Amino acid sequence: MSDVKGLWQSVLGELEVSVTRAHFVTWLRPTYVVSNEDGHIVIGVPNIFNKQWLENKYHGDIKAALSKQDPKIHTVEYKVVGKAADTKPSHAPTTAHPAAKRSEPAPQHKSARAEQTTLPTSPAANNNLNPRYTFETFVVGSSNEFAHAACQAVAKSPGTKYNPLFIYGGVGLGKTHLMQAVGNEILRKDNTKRIEYVSIESFTNEFIEAIQKKKNSAFTDKYRGVDVLIIDDMQFLAGKEKTQDEFFHTFNALHQGNKQIIISSDKPPQQLLQLEDRLRSRFAMGITVDIQPPDLETRSAIIQAKATGQGIMLPLDVVDFIARHAQSNIRELEGTLTKVLADCEHRGGEPDLARVQQLLAAEVANRPKIKPLSPKTIIERVASYFDLQTADITGAKRDKEIVVPRQITMYLMRHEMNLSFPKIAAAVGGRDHTTAMHSVTKIEKQIDADDNLRSDVQAIRERLNAVAS
Amino acid sequence: MRLSLTQENLARALASVGRVVSTRTSLPVLSNVLVATDGNRLRLSATNLEIGINYWIGSKIEQQGSLTVPARLFAEFVSSLPHGNIELSAIDNVLTVQTPHYESKINGISAEEFPLIPTITSDPVLSLDAGLLRDALAQVVVAASADEARPVLAGVYMYTEEKNLFLVATDSYRLAEKRVELEEEPAKGFSVIVPARTMQELVRLLGDASDVVEIYLDENQVMFRIGDVELVSRLIEGQFPNYRQIIPQKAETSFDIDTAEFLRITKVASLFARESAGSVKLEIKAEGEVSIMSSDSEVGGNKSSAECEVAGDDGEISLNARYLTDALSVMKTPQVTFAISGKLSACVISPTGEDVVDDYLHIVMPLRT
Asked: What range does the domain containing B305 cover?
């Protein structure tokens, strides 16, 4: 976008010398590029008069200047874009507008005794939702289908079905996308609904500002008057006690009014240990869903969806290669894909496997060397995760604090390395292979039912991958 | 260009058109009015790039042509002339205005420099009686915000619902909603926010017109056509607050009162409320009396009372007197109902009486004392 901006700046620069200053200031300066796709450039203008003027008087010059800068541009369109803040409309004589004179500022600051109360009219439009995040653009796979289903249920009947909806999972797996999709879907059905999407960090900052400026009630009105509150990255509320307090009351007010609350975090509520108990227990009141890293099929589907979205068909072997290449999260996947597509555009022609391999080879070489996973690393990682010694895992103690990590160790050896049970047993302190079998089955059984266990295992897996890849 | 027309017609047209010219602009032509022949009529146009007006007047055209001249000077000069015929002629961007006893030359700017005022060619989305729309708008536009900080509040929300046209405005301290019953349900419903300044201009243009006003919509713009006048304006983008949920449904205390009487005691009380920025206190006695009190440490104090018919318990509320007088001034019925629910909840003023249609309400938020 920045080079498009630069392009328009140079076009304006060229036109500035050929028209009078007054014309430039009135007609050209308040314009900007809205989009530039496939040589079709859309110029945003502040009003219809501007649009007609550009179309009738400057169109030829503008087009010539644009093509000079970028020969690919073949059509120019002007679009009225309401952007009141940028354009200062010239005002009619004040005699025509007694309203402007009539209205002295609202009296609340003048009088120490009386304060004007206000109607709750906060606009629904300014809700921070990104309209691109919809259910249609979300690729569903086995790793996220439950979360997706829960979100759709919430979008269908906000405030009644699952309240709060708590989504957790690692970075770049689509939590924000899903949450915003719920917001956008609700708005699509009923655009009078007031929806507020905010990261917990902005929430905290606004709260602090409200306290400093003594505008507490405005803050309270804003967040307690919404129909749907979507809070991102809840884990960052840790350690902010005053904000936790405020959030607690906001949560209660909304929940009692049957207003939908949607929260995301990197951990399930039970593990947000730095939050107060009363908050954690409330978060778990509705439904808690997790998003796992996408498997190979989902990754392939995402790549294809994104590529198709940009009008490019990728060969299957290329899709497969990229999906295998970028494993850890969807952001990395997008980054890799963008790189491949940019390369194609730059050099022209269709992407083929050889070129993509070559392109990504450098990246692979720059990565930390892939260290093959060893039983020893798994033991070390598990031990450090649970604050134990490696000797504890391999040792003979049977305290619960040690037994579970030991079982997890064996489970991971089985699932991440595909080790045989006798080998697992041998690696973990020379046990009997039936012990290993029992441990692995036990974790396999519990992992679906126990959120804590699942998130522990997931966290350790991520650490393993961080070392391994 | 050469033509002749009557002073009355030209003066009236210039008075309307001249109001939308731009005074503070870097582009001088925007302070001008475009004078152009259009078939056998004369067209006057002006714009401030937010609103544009096209005004056609019947005249005797002898030679086609066009140019722009400073709106203010031209309007003042024409309105000072005696009634009768005026001849206009233009040569080389100089407009000559001639009557038997007056002759002026006004230096203008070429019509080429003047922006085109767009008209909308699609079918009107609605047409209704001009007087009806004028009265309805006048009751609503008073509550719009004069502050552009929240653009949607600086507009009048206009939408159709079944056989009704709704007009709503709020500055977040008060809100006015008017329902206009239409003769038939519009073929295509719509919902737009029109700048309050456009609506104020429209109210003036509608004046005592007895015509029909037609409303046209296009992407980002609206056009009102009243006979030979077209008013074009941008629309405000954004979403109007979901105001219906704000309207109180029940009242703890309410009273019916003579509108003029209520307005009188409010105005009297406001004289003593200047220090407190308009703060007055209403006390309602269940026996049937409302009192308005105000005090000013320098000037003194006042208590004015009026009889009324009370439903519910005693009650009291503090309000900004200006909001109350604004609301009462636009009431059309001899009697109004005033309803409150506690000191800090919105109070509702609505028309009342026999055979009165329940089509208007005005909400005022109280002062916290």
From this structure: 247-364
